[in-house]
Amino acid sequence: MNTTKDIRKIFIIMFAILGIATVFSVARSTAFAQNTNEEQASLRTIRTAKIANSEGIKNIDVPTFLVNVWHNTGIYQVIHTPTAAEIAEAKALEAARAAKASVNPFADVRVPAWYNIVMIAIGFLIIYLGAAHGFEPLLLIPIGFGTVFANILGAGMIDAPHGMLHIIYSAGVGNEFFPMLIFMGIGAMTDFGPLIANPKTALLGGAAQLGVFITLLGVALFNLLPGVDYNMLQACAIAIIGGADGPTSIYVSGKLAPGMMAVIAVAAYSYMALVPMIQPPLMKLLTTKKERLIKMPQLRPVSRTEKVLFPILLLILTILLLPPAAPLIGMLAFGNFVKEVGVVERLSKTIQNELMNIVSILLSLGVGAQMTPEKIMNPSSLGIIALGLVAFAFATVGGLLMAKLMNVFLPKDKKINPLIGSAGVSAVPMAARVTNKVGLEYDPTNFLLMNAMGPNVSGVIGTAIAAGVFIATYG
Hints:
Elements: H1 3-30, H2 62-71, H3 74-79, H4 84-102, H5 114-133, H6 137-150, H7 164-173, H8 177-189, H9 193-197, H10 202-207, H11 210-222, H12 232-239, H13 246-256, H14 261-273, H15 275-286, H16 289-292, H17 304-321, H18 326-341, H19 345-368, H20 373-376, H21 379-409, H22 430-442, H23 449-474
């Protein structure tokens, strides 16, 4: 059995089911949109056409963006005393955000009952991918079951206020609670030693965020398609998929685009699982055989003091420069500090195992509960899947090209193998393992795993920073 071909067939079937249902959905809604006088997006009207649900979202140019980022730094907030007018404006904005968040855009949407059957079939396909092919099984299996449970007609598992899935979603998925706990667990399972030993690899994790920002441009082009309307908040949430970081994708979508959380989460975790299929062709396309054969020296030993101080310094820098990213990076630093300090081993093991497993189950069930037909079966949802692939591909390309650029300036005996640039995405440690595997294909003695872990863990930090920038700008 050819596993790769089987997986491709499964995804083709899933997309075909979604596509057919989406065609029906668009056809049903078109009859009610024929007489609208609103300007439709096209290449000619892309600057003036109205995007649905974009009311109240400011157009931000580069100077305004830089001012917003500065105003959100911890340094500015320490030296600046807000005036009464600024406090009143902040309260008004917060009230407006709360009011907008409380509105369910799908509350009045009605779909045929057979759409739920289609979603149940998709739920079982997700379960199959996790169980039979090992695609992030700890996450996709409960997401799949959550999808099935949410679409059982008459079961009421997603009904407020007593439905089980509704309770789970309200308790920790629809806010930042569960993603924060997941980040704490990631911190407790992460070794920042390779990054500390070779800090220049942090540039590769930063360059991999290229996919996040390139996707923002792609979203504008997708708005030219009929039935697709992404506002800037939704664009930011979709773009984070490029970081290949499921918890961050859920966190940002919960803040900026709650209605799209389910499909964004499934896309993010699916592409994380597809790292071994997506990255190797790009790695081989953008590197030469000579580059792939570059051997890197073993990393220097990292002292316990360095490992203990690293999360503290990381948190202090975040507090000073980008407080909106502090929830994610702060919990990452906390989990890592508990692991490295060595005096609370019981807490470290609990965070890494029991707590992480429980929260993963609840988070995944809650995400699956949002996989209902009115949210999924529309052109915008299919666009998210396509844009997520674009984001992930450009993230891989960004890391590879940065590695090649760094080699232009590095001495001959200190050049890095460009393959490790692809590990700059946040899929820890899968992306590093893929890098090592590709390197071994060309030289069985060239072990790149530890060198690839540096950009890999820096990618986690980079994606959290990108999320903080988006939230600081639009959140």
